[in-house]
Structure formats: structure tokens, C-alpha cells
């Protein structure tokens, strides 16, 4: 017997599309012990940006992953910052430390692309920087590194 396949319906352009890029950096399963047993919840770290100089981060906690991500996105959109970008890179070199997290960022020539690790790469991609050199020194805590990266980007100024 021959099966016939139908093409899926076209998505109409009337559905609202978010202008922000959402990147889930980390999902943690957190358990706590109560009288009846263990309760599981999820903690998510999300970076939101418009790829045009605005970026923010949020941490959401809920009993389901989708709800935790949505909470984190709402928090991230509330605490967006504007970053000064010059010719696809940052205006000057910066070394920023927040607690035990140290972030080094250096402007790069066009064509270098993004040289960054893990959590810093998520922030750099979301903000829309095309060429940059970065290094994480100190802790490997993703939440601390994201926070330090965003604070470092907020301290940049045009020369």
C-alpha cells in the first residue's frame, strides 16, 4: 500500500516573533529532602540579547524546566544593558573581576571571530559582537562568569 505524505502547513507571518535571542547556559537539578521524600526543582541560567548591543541574564527556578526557562527569560529582559560596539568589536581592552571570577576581554581585528569559552561565548553571541578575544581566569562557576562578563561589558566606553 502506498502512503501519501502531506506537507506541513505554512507558518503565517501574523504570529509574533521575538526579536531577542535566548541562550540557555545551564540547567541544574536541585533536590531538597522533606518529610515525604525528595522534592526536585530545576534552576536555569539564561542569557537574552538582541544581537545589536543589548544583553541581559536571568536565573529562574521552578519544578519544570520550561517554566524555569520562562522565568529566567523574563528576569533577563528586565535587566538588559546596552553595550558599546565599535566595528563589530569592543572599544578597548578590559580586565574585570567580580568575586573570584576574572574576565579578560580584548578587541580583535575583523575576521578573527569570537574566541571565548562557555558562558562568556553565550553573552558575546547574544550581544552581537563579531570579533573579540576573551579569557576566563579564576572560577568555573557559569553564573559568576556570566555576571562578571555582563558587568565588564557595561563598564566599556567609547574613546
UniProtKB/TrEMBL annotation:
It comes from the Bacteria. The keyword Secreted does not apply. GO terms for molecular function: rRNA binding; structural constituent of ribosome. Residues 20-83 form the S5 DRBM domain. SUPFAM superfamilies: dsRNA-binding domain-like (SSF54768), Ribosomal protein S5 domain 2-like (SSF54211). One of its GO terms (biological process) is ribosome biogenesis. InterPro entries: Ribosomal_Su5_D2-typ_SF (IPR020568), Ribosomal_uS5 (IPR000851), Ribosomal_uS5_bac-type (IPR005712), Ribosomal_uS5_C (IPR005324), Ribosomal_uS5_N (IPR013810), Ribosomal_uS5_N_CS (IPR018192), Ribsml_uS5_D2-typ_fold_subgr (IPR014721). Keywords: Ribonucleoprotein, Ribosomal protein, RNA-binding, rRNA-binding. The keyword Ribonucleoprotein applies. One of its GO terms (cellular component) is cytoplasm. Belongs to the universal ribosomal protein uS5 family. This is Small ribosomal subunit protein uS5.
